[in-house]
Structure to design on (780 residues):
């Protein structure tokens, strides 16, 4: 109202540098406010990161090295500035103030808050009730975050609803030191691709902004029909009146949800990768998923058919007495990066998600023959081609 | 057992530099161990002092200035070394390690303990239960004290029973960093002059080692008969067999407790002031208290009888119309240092504890006439003589 640009504080945890669409919802709001002339202040939480995340899943983490923080911050900002305007962003590292924070500073800060006050935070209260350990260090987390607000003199702090408590503490501390207390802007929650829970990396129901175009397109196509319009609303510039039309078409069944989803997926891929990539991703999707064809290009896995026991990826190979080359599918799926562990690979096999040379395998098909050119397929979208390394 | 001298850690809170007989009980134990060849490590708690005392009466205190800490440490050590052997004492200031303590150090230290663990400490538990505020800072207190033990590699920590929890935390931290955990030596508690509660400055039932001989003697004479032998045991070198004799004489009523108390009081005064002072204090006691005479020497308060309204202590003077000089007794008692406030002085007056010129005053006698040489007496032992400043 005063015409003075607002300082919009946004924290970043460098132990989790990847941005997914759940974060993008808030970042888009920041961008809109930048376009109105306001200033984003990005806080690189290199100190809070080592304490543990606010939801307290992990107690304390090893301190990230300066190099790791730097690398993660680079990764994060490369993604962030796909949405947020770099020119109107001030980047501040907590090290600037916490690097020289003394015990006297800690004492001054901690004397302003009571244990009971901090233990009221939802997750702390639950853990304390349940006799789950809370490290003394964890009580410092919200205090340090609050301190950040005083240093950068934030007018508004952005955060998910799980940040509500921490943000309010920032308000309180600002008042104590004679600053105008920050407003708190809680970002709407985006439901993940499972259609049930909040999008979150740890739940595996996320779409990362750095995912390849095909994956991003495919994942966006997998969201449930119920959430299509919500995604449009929170993640695209489709105007409100058109959203209204979408809603009524969906309600009346006068549109094919698949068409709307394709438009959404195309929109998202072009935002984060570009128009051409969006076209290609759509083409790939239609060919591979809708028409169930193998894609034009797929990654290759080399096996030396001449000297299988000593060539590349020899650990996935089992040579038959008759000279036939076989592969251990469990190992192959892991090797291809389609499963994180043998256990997961075995489950995929049991679920019938694995095909070799177009044949759907069963739990018994662990060792199967291959020839140069054989394709391995896991699920709908993941392919790899076995080639002879010679 | 190993023949290696033990390191005996003793903390000192520089916000409370005065030593009373309750402390002396432990200091005598330290001295005995020094005489056996062990080493005392005195920790000047210039950092913990600012957080608040472990019993949590006060939340946080303003940080003492370096000068105040220095002055208090001098006061303390002048008293301490009346009991403890200076030559076998290593003095360490917390500033040595906490002066450069970083936020990273705080995080490392606090990550080793849980909130629940610290809140188990008796006084915290009670305050938390009763919804009384506990500053986050206060949780740091026992951790800093524990850290001290690791720095000085203490083998034994001395402390009152209220220090039990903090000392055990020190053991735990020492084990975590690979040191042999310290033993904890809890010092027996000395009952105060009220005969009921632990001797403590805040309860006013203490005898300070720096009190003038007459006061020390008089206060020691005021202890109840039940505790005489206990005082001998904890505070003097009277051998065990003689203590046994005292006990049976007391039980059989074959001794006058007053005689035993005189011996005790004499012993104490000579320990802290010397033989001659002990003789004089005993003489003073017998004259003033037992025979109810005024002492030979007493402090003086100057009033200018010639120009009462402008001379020294003119604020206690009320000049009568007839030229008679009167004093405001309430103000005079405060001025003489016999009461901390007008309220307390008024209470003394109401209780009949105040005499002027040998006459016991009542609550109505606030303004009474005086002449040069008039004595003011409060209670049994406190006197002041009004003199003419000319």
């Amino acid at each position: 109202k005063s015409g003075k640009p607002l300082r919009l504080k946004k924290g970043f945890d460098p132990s989790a540098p990847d941005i997914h669409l759940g974060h993008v919802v808030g970042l888009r709001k920041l961008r809109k406010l930048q376009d109105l002339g306001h200033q984003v202040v990005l806080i690189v939480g290199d100190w809070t990161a080592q304490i543990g995340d606010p939801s307290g899943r992990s107690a304390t983490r090893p301190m990230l090295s300066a190099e790791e923080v730097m690398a993660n911050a680079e990764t994060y900002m490369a993604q962030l500035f796909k949405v947020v305007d770099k020119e109107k962003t001030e980047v501040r590292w907590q090290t600037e103030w916490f690097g020289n924070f003394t015990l006297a500073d800690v004492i001054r800060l901690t004397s302003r808050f009571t244990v009971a006050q901090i233990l009221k935070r939802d997750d702390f209260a639950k853990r304390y009730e349940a006799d789950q350990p809370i490290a003394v260090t964890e009580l410092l987390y919200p205090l340090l975050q609050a301190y950040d607000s005083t240093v950068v003199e934030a007018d508004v702090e952005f955060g998910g609803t799980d940040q509500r408590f921490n943000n309010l503490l920032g308000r309180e501390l600002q008042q104590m030191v004679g600053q105008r207390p920050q407003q708190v802007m809680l970002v709407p929650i985006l439901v993940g691709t499972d259609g049930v829970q909040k999008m979150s990396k740890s739940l595996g129901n996320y779409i990362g902004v750095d995912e390849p175009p095909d994956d991003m397109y495919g994942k966006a196509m997998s969201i449930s029909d119920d959430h299509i319009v919500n995604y449009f609303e929170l993640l695209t510039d489709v105007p409100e009146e058109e959203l209204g039309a979408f809603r009524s078409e969906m309600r009346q069944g006068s549109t094919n949800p698949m068409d709307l989803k394709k438009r959404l997926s195309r929109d998202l891929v072009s935002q984060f990768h570009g128009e051409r990539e969006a076209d290609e991703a759509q083409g790939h999707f239609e060919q591979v998923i809708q028409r169930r064809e193998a894609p034009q290009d797929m990654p290759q896995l080399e096996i030396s058919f001449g000297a299988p026991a000593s060539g590349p990826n020899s650990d996935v190979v089992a040579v038959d007495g008759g000279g036939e080359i076989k592969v251990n599918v469990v190992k192959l799926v892991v090797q291809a990066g389609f499963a994180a562990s043998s256990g997961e690979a075995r489950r995929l096999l049991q679920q019938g998600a694995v095909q070799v040379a177009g044949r759907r395998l069963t739990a018994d098909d662990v060792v199967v023959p291959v020839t140069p050119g054989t394709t391995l397929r896991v699920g709908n979208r993941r392919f790899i081609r076995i080639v002879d390394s010679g």
Notes: The first strand of chain B starts at residue 7 and ends at 12. Residues 53-59 of chain B have pLDDT under 50 and may be disordered. Chain B touches chain A at residues 47, 50-51, 59-60, 63, 98-99, 101-107, 110-116, 118-119, 128, 131, 133-140, 143 (CB under 8 Å).
